[in-house]
Amino acid sequence: MKPLDDHSSRQLFYGRVFGLENTCPHPFEEPSEKILQKCGGLPLAIISIASLLASQSTRSVSQWNYVLNSLRSDLRSNPTLEGMRQILNLSYTHLPHHLKTCLLYIGMYPEDHDIEKDHLVMQWVAEGFVCGIDGRDALEIAGSYFNELVNRSMIIQLVEHHTFYMERIYHKVHDMVLDLIVSKSAEENFLCVVENMETITRRQHCKTRRLSLQLGEAELDKIAPWMSLTHVRSLCIFGLRHRSIELLELKFIRVLFVCKVDGLDLAPIGKLFQLSYLNVQCSYPGSSMQLPKHICGLRHLETLVIDAPLVELPQDIVHLPALSYLEVSVCIAYPDGISKMKSLCTLKGFDPSKQSVDNLRALGELLNLRELDMHFTDDSFRTTETRMLCFIPSRTVGYYDEWNSLCLSDCRLEQLRLGFNFPRLPMWVGQLSTLSSLEIHVDELCNDDISVLAGLPALAHLVLGATNVPDEGIVFSSSAAFSSLDYFESRRTGHSLHFQAGAVPKVETLRFQLDVDEVNSCGIRLAGVEHLTNLKRVAIGLGYTWESDVPMVEAAIRAIFDEHHPGRLVFHITSFYG
User: Fold this and answer.
1) Which intervals hold domain Disease resistance R13L4/SHOC-2-like LRR (predicted)?
2) Where are the domains of the chain?
3) pTM of the model
4) Which residues are CB-neighbours of 567 under 8 A, at least 6 positions away?
């Protein structure tokens, strides 16, 4: 990347430190200029030092001069890798001890690997880096550590748009930050990354506690004679096809992450009694995997993720006392008895069409369930509807009279994603008083349904798909305001949206889709945007028949928002044929 000019450098630096791109308090102007001189216009250097200064609890000129004097290299006159490493090392040195430990663990991941926040923090907790304190859950604390590393620019947050409705937030570390992590990890014997036989030979007499295998399959067969796995607490294996790892050697293993690996014998997993986190991913065509038939000995297993072709789940999975997170990407029947899984907080990839009636009924008995992701793999909803005598998302849920006569009590569900259509909005939705995030799709939506959703006091994130809506469209009424909603997404094309004053006072993000041909014939059916006083982001998908019509419609949409929110909004407009 080219160095930034002086103006852009100041904008980046001031924006990160002070929150305003063109503002710097007078006492800090001189040290700021000298620091920017040292950074030489390099964005990574500027954002690293700016993040370091922004993280300090107090701000003083002497503190800034201390940082300035710590920068020995002048990257403007001598832009070297060593100078950049020195800046990153300074940022690392100023990290609190707990953040250093968490950052070094990222060295387990290969270069340019997508980091999933939820899974990384679960690995930190499984390793014992983070514990609950003062009533705060360990995962909550670990999440705050992750956010702090993002704020300090040690971790980069990115957004990828696959389609208009598929937005993925993921994280990476810069290549030079990863080099620093690996170097520090080697110095402190924190972890070992094996990329070739030289590494194995060099480390054969070390007690390796964290091991990341990133080898070609030809070399991997040579590991066993050279490296002991006895002391390993975390093992990550990436992109290999092999059968050579002796899992039974992993007597103290807590984290096992197998990514894009084929042929690994998982039978010994049932005897890894200290295992807390297990994530198995396999993407090779024609590959399959088989878990052992019995895993009830895994008394400490808290996280189980299976993203691979799987014949069946172990029958005794329902007896794992600590299992709180279960995600199975393949559609598979769960063993009967899931009502015994009392510690389960998150359940993802659950297909009701594959389950027994007893298991559907039992979902209502999972008292600690906070997050549920359900979807059908085909059009089986109608065929399974008649046998779904009980359907979940709370402590007690019964299904009678086509999803509506449901009895709910003390519901504590916080996130609910239902990836299939209901005929109408189920009555029990209005009783989900702790729900903060909801995705739901209905064949028919009425105004009363909007009022029901508005009555959910904690609802902050709503994705709503409706095939048919009232003639006046989807109306957000001031008489039924959404008190907490900050994100709204409409998943159908062409519906009118009307926002009355005070109906959605906190909405910051609005996402919807329009058909260009409909706009040309009926106009843009969008009213009340002036009442969205906290709006910050607008994402619009434009479906077109003739691409030449798109610019005019896009300009008209921007004009509507610019009239009431001039220069204030971030727009993301995409167009597609169809």
Assistant:
1) 231-565
2) 6-93, 97-172, 445-578
3) 0.86
4) none
Q: Which residues contact 258 (CB under 8 A, 6 or more apart)?
A: 236, 237, 264, 279, 280, 281, 282
Please give the Cα distance from 134 to 379 (Å, whole number): 47
- Tell me which DSSP letter residue 434 carries: T
Count of residues for the chain? 578
Identify the helix (H) or strand (E) that includes residue 178: helix 175-187
Which pair of tokens denotes residue 348? Answer: 């993802």
Closest CA to 13 of 37, 27, 26: 37
**Separation between Cα atoms, residue 334 and residue 326, nearest integer Å:** 11
Going residue by residue through the chain, which has 578 residues, state the pLDDT in tens, using 9 for 90 and above.
678 888 899 999 998 898 876 788 888 989 999 999 888 888 889 999 999 999 887 888 998 998 888 887 666 666 677 778 889 999 999 999 999 999 999 999 999 999 999 999 999 999 999 999 888 999 999 999 999 999 999 999 988 765 566 677 899 999 999 999 999 998 999 999 988 766 665 655 568 899 998 876 545 555 555 667 889 999 998 876 655 677 888 999 999 999 877 777 788 899 999 999 999 987 666 666 778 889 999 999 999 999 887 778 899 999 999 999 999 987 788 999 998 999 999 999 888 878 887 887 777 788 899 999 988 765 544 444 433 433 433 333 333 343 444 434 455 889 999 888 888 898 888 888 999 999 999 999 998 999 999 999 999 999 999 999 998 889 999 999 999 999 999 987 667 899 999 999 999 999 998 888 877 777 778 899 999 999 999 998 888 878 888 888 889 889 999 999 988 898 888 887 76
As given in the structure block, the two tokens for residue 311 are 């014949």
Pairing of strands 234-238, 210-213: parallel
If you ran DSSP here, which 8-state letter would residue 285 be given?
Answer: T
Residue 160 pairs with which residues in a beta bridge? Answer: 168
* Rounded Cα gap, residues 100 and 94, in angstroms: 9
